[in-house]
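Quick check before the chapter quiz. The format below is the same one you will see on the exam, so make sure you can read both the input and the output lines.
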Amino acid sequence: MMRTWQITTVTDAARARISLARLAAAYGVPTVERARLAAALSAHLRQCLTKGGTWRLTMDVAGSPAEEGLLHVVVTPSPEACAAGEPLWEVTVPCPETADAAEDGTVAADTAALSEALLGADEDTAVVLDKLTEQEDLVLFHREELHQTNQGVLALHAELDAAGRAQREAFAAERSARKEAESARRRLTFLADASAVLTASLNHEEIVRRLPDLLVPEYARSVDVWLFDHEEDRDRSAPHPAAAVVAARTGRPQYAADHPGNLPGVEDQPPSALDPGRPLLCVPLPTRRAPLGVLTLSPPGARWDPDDAVMLIELTRRASIAIDNARRFEHNRDIAETLQRALLTDLPTTPGLSLAARYLPATHGLNIGGDWYDAFPQRDGGLITVIGDVTGHGLHAAVMMSQLRTALRAYAVDGDSPGRLLTRLHRFLHHLQPDLYATAVIARFHPDEPTLTWAAAGHPPPVLRLPDGTVRTLDAKPGAMLGIPLTQEIADHTEQLAPGSTLALYTDGLVERRAQGIDPGIERLATALGRFRSTELDADLEGSADRLLHPLLSDSERDDDVCLLLCHFQGGVGS
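Here is the expected output.
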């Protein structure tokens, strides 16, 4: 359907606009689109009236009733405007409904109808304004929601920032705690390792030498150990720092520097006059009686960490215990060695028989005092030679050894054989010291006969070198150790001697090695003894004993006593 209006005056324009609006409403054009169409048409019609002439407004609806149609509006210029190049004005809007053919939207030509129509035209505008109001309310609502959302986001960001700071602080605290734990573990590990190094030695001078090696350069730049050799040493001020003297007198750690040390359990002192620019930590070496000395250290850097200082004080305490123990061991060892040597008497001179003996104390710890040798005549002219070893070490073993030696000499007065003497010693030791044992070998030489009588009780077997250089191990069945809870009768064994024969009696310290046992050592002794010439043994048995010991002990740590007794049979004793 097509509608056409001629526009010449304002009244024509108003009537056409109102008619078009009514038709658009009849075709179901939405209110907003209808208002937009009316507003655009009004603006264009005003321009047309300003230019003058007669303009034509055409409205056409395209589309079948079953389909949604299109409302096509065209304003054709007047001939004059068209000649001036004025273009068509057109607009298209959808119209979803079909209007009744009887309703054409025409407005009557009288003034009253036009006025009423103009007043009714604002209804679309009112609807649009209501929709705008709704939209404004909706926009205000969304703006408020957006504001609240922004506030929530800001609050969330603040919470996230706070959580981030808390997490960073927690990480920093964890790193700090881990660092402190690692430092503590490092100090404890060092303290344990250093303590093991210090207590591994029983030589106090070696312990003192090890202290700088342990502490420099990680925990100290320099280390000085001042040991008191006499009681008055602790009052001697020069050349030791004054703080060291104070530490010696008071028994408390001192810190000498031009600034407070703030070290736990340490008293502050003025800087040392010997070296004013260097801080010093002076720690006494404590014992239960009085300090052994003072350990003076300078820091590896500007100053010590308090925890490091605590660790150094503890290490000094452990070093003091190690030094004190070493000094006690050395003192007891000296007493035991002195007693041992005092009990090892000079060897007798016997026609036809040369004797040479060696005793070497252990070089480590207190492993001395149990080995002994002896040689003495019997009333019938026979000569008893003995070598033995008491279990245990130190003064107790040395005293027990002296008692066995004395008992053996007393029993030998009766003229008993070696086996009988060992049997009596076994009973004596078991009765006197049930928890102490001993081993021994006794060999008896008689001037009237070239016969060796010997017996052993749990001791390494004697080694016999024959004149032709052949070496035999006298390993006939020995008795058990002396003192064990066992009744035993120890048997005698005999061996014929030819002039030039040499018997070697020894203790296990000469032949036994931890990694090899005792049998390889006995073979080495036999081999070394077999290398000597008879003339060499005849001429210099003492020198031969030294030359025999050297190859056998060159690979030994000497952690046990060593006894050696060489008996060289020259023959012709009774002639």
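If your answer matched, good. The chain has a mean pLDDT of 85.
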